[in-house]
Amino acid sequence: MTATDDDVAGLRSPRVTARIGVALGISFGICFATGLLSHGIQHPPSWFEWIARPVWLYRVTQGVHVISGCVAIPLLLAKLAVVYPKLFDRPLIGSPARALERLSIAVLVAAGIFQLLTGLLNIAQWYPWSFFFPSAHYAMAYVAIGALAIHIAVKLPVIRTALDGPVDSRPPERRRGPSGLSRRGFLNLTWVAGGLGALAFAGQTIPLLRPVAFLAPRSGDGPQGLPINRTAEAAGVISAATDADYRLRVTGAGAGRELSLTELRTLPQHTVDLPIACVEGWSVGATWTGVRVTDLAALVGGDGGRGIRVISLERGLYAVSTLPVAQSQDPLTLLALELNGEPLDIDHGYPGRLIAPNLPGVMQTKWVSRIEVL
To answer: In this protein, which residues make up the domain named Oxidoreductase molybdopterin-binding (predicted)?
Structure first.
C-alpha cells in the first residue's frame, strides 16, 4: 500500500464515519420532526390542534427545520466521501442481513440526496420538476428516516465500537498523509462546513446573522421592510386589488356583509407586533394594524368558537386558507390594512391581508376578498 493509499484509507476509518454519521443522524432527526410539524399545521389531520401562543413558535421550528437541513448537506457529502468505496464492495448482495443493509444504504443515500436537494431548491423557489413539492418532500421524509432507522439497527454494533475508541490511535508520525490532513483535521473541517451551512441560511430567521447569510435568498428587505415570495403581478391581482369598487364579503350563520375599504377603516383598528414566517425558512417581525377577525365574524353572528376560511382575490393552489380555531379566536389575528405604520404595499396584500400568530406565511392569505365563518 502506498503512502497516499494509507492516507486515504485512514480517513475512511469507521471511527470517522461513525462520528459524522451521528451528527448527520441528529440533523436528519431534527429536520424530520420539525418538518412533520410544519406539514401538520398546513394539512392538519382530524386529531391535530395547533396553538396560537407563543406567537414566535412556528418562526423558531421552521427556522430550525431549514437550518438543520442546510447543516446536513456538508455532513452528507463528508459521509459519502469517507464511505463511497464501501458502497461497491463485493459481494453486492450476499446474506439476507447484508442484502438488507445494502438496500437500506441505497435507499438512505437516494432519499437523503433527494430531500436535501429539493429542499434547497425550494428555499430558492426554483422547481425544475413536475411533481408537487410538499407532497413528495413529505412522503420521502418517511422513506429517508425509515432507511436511516434500519441502517442504524444493522450497524449498531459497529457504531458502538467505533465511538468507544479515539478518533485516531495510530502513532503521531502516521496520522497525517501527504495531504497533511489527519482524521481529526477532516472531522474539524466537516464541523466547520456544517457551521457554514447554518450561517449561510440562518440569517433568514435570526436578524443578527443577516449580514453573514451569504446564500439566503430572502435575508434582505423587501417593500416596507419585509421580503415577499409572490408579487401582486405574479398573482394576477393588481386590477382587482386596486379596483375602487372593491368589497370584502363576510359570511356566516346565514348572514352576510359587504364592506368597502373605507368602511373597514372606520371599524375599530388594532395594532399588533407579529412575525411572519414562511416555509422556506425566512421570518421577519413587523407591526400590523387592522380589524380583528373576531370583530368581522361578530358582524355576521360568529360566536368566536368556529374556524374561519379566508379567500383571496388570487386564484390557484393557495388562494384559500382555513384558520384553526385557536387563531380564529385570538385577538391578535387581524385583517391587516397597514404594515409598519403605512398602508399595505400591494405586494404585501393590499387592500387587506390576514395576519395571525404562529402560522406559516402560506396560510396568511393576501389580497383577501372573502371571510367565511365556518
So the answer is: 242-373
